[in-house]
Amino acid sequence: MPQHKGMSRRDFFKLAGTAAAGSVLAPLEAETRLTAQESSMPTRPFGDTGIDVPILSLGGSQHLPLLLLRASFLRGVTYWDVANSYMGGNSEKRIGKYFEKYPQDRKKIFLVTKSHAWSTAGMTDDLNESLERMQTDTVDLFFVHAVSSIDELNDETKAWAEKAKAAGKIRLFGFSTHSNMAECLLEASRLGWIDGIMMTYNFRLMHTARMRRAVDACARAGIGLTAMKTMGGGSIRTSTDSELEMAARFLQEGYSEAQAKLKAVWDNPQIASICSEMPNTTILVANVAAALNRTRISDRGSTLLNRYASETRSGYCAGCARICETATGGKVPIGDIMRCLMYWRSYGDRERAAKQFKTISPGTLHRLARCDYSPAENKCPQQMAIGKLIKQAIEEFACE
Asked: Would you list the DSSP string of 165-202?
């Protein structure tokens, strides 16, 4: 089946079974045997900071058993990303337990945490609490969490970062962003005092003109970039001929669709690392295998992935909330609602989705139910059925 044209589902699953017994699992079996020493995880420079980081990072917005942390360390996944708010603070506490048991490992971990406080006093409180929880004197990178406009950072923020660095509590400073990413990156590249940024970045977003310009600008400014949300909306459904062809192509090239999505991001050397939620060692081992496999996705595989992104764009929120929210007069947090749906439909994390939805005030919920979304739909680059999706989110979560 060299071209995979007209491939049936039976043919696809036959191929998948064959690959599972061979090339896809071969590197995973090798990784499973790694128990007592660090793997040769590739690293990249984190901007112009002088620090090299692993190209794969462990995301901490999940339960972090000590065994998972140990397995990550032994496999060279020594960039750990958490936040003051993750798991009610338990993510940081688990890292603290790890350092209590393996204090010698702290020097080898690139440790990142975040604050969702919108004041420097709140950031100070969060940082001090994070240091205490993680039983460390300093974090390597401190983020202001979920920035949607660069205006949220100002001279007071800059002064706070400089003071925290001088006190030895942080080495680097930056922010994470889930919405309006390209605009945030472009503006940050002009500030001159941002060391690192973590942004939503995946096979769906990386080729847009806006994102390419933004990433290029940050690279020129020496800002270290970490990609998150790299799965781009969850698993490929293999329900159309093009999806079947793409999935079959990846299997023949020796990796799964999830591994292919990671490798598509790593193809851009400007991305220092990918932050991935890896809730179990199975996913950890698969992601590590993808990082260790230096084989690039074929041109045909890249073409198919890009085509899939175009064909399914109406089902994926690209995070450009400024466009849709401005079109509705800034009355409703469309981007936040789309994130709730993403957590539930793409990640299967209904608890997280419902928890975020509950942060919406009753007044905002009232506006959500009555807003005319047609102007936003007309402006949406993804051509999403925003009104229908908002209604589904209200029906799904409002009575929780």
From this structure: HHTTSEEEEEEEESSSHHHHHHHHHTTS---EEEEE--
- Residues sharing a CB contact under 8 Å with residue 338, sequence separation 6 or more, in sequence order: 317, 321, 384, 389
Q: Which domain holds residue 370?
A: 314-397
Tokens of residue 93, six digits: 């506490």
Tell whether the model's pLDDT for residue 196 goes beyond 80: yes
The rounded distance, in Å, linking the Cα atoms of 143 and 140 is: 10
Q: Looking at the predicted structure, is the pLDDT value of residue 47 above 70?
A: yes
Instruction: Give the integer Cα–Cα distance in Å for 10 and 280.
Output: 30
How far CA 219 is from CA of 129, 182, 190, 191, 270, in Å, comes to: 32, 13, 12, 13, 6
Q: Model confidence at 30, in pLDDT bands (50, 70, 90)?
A: very low
Whether the Cβ atoms of residue 140 and residue 174 lie closer than 8 Å to each other: no
Compute the distance between CA of residue 92 and CA of residue 81 in angstroms, rounded to an integer.
9
Dig out the tokens for 395 from the structure: 């029906």
Total of domains in the chain: 2
Which residues touch 333 (CB under 8 Å, ≥6 apart)? 321, 325, 360, 364
Assigned domain for 3 exists: no
Closest of 396, 237, 400 to residue 316, by C-alpha: 237
Together in a domain, 227 and 356: no
Global confidence as pTM: 0.86
Cα angle for residues 276, 36, 34 (degrees, 5° grid): 55
* Residue 293: other Cβ atoms inside 10 A: 16
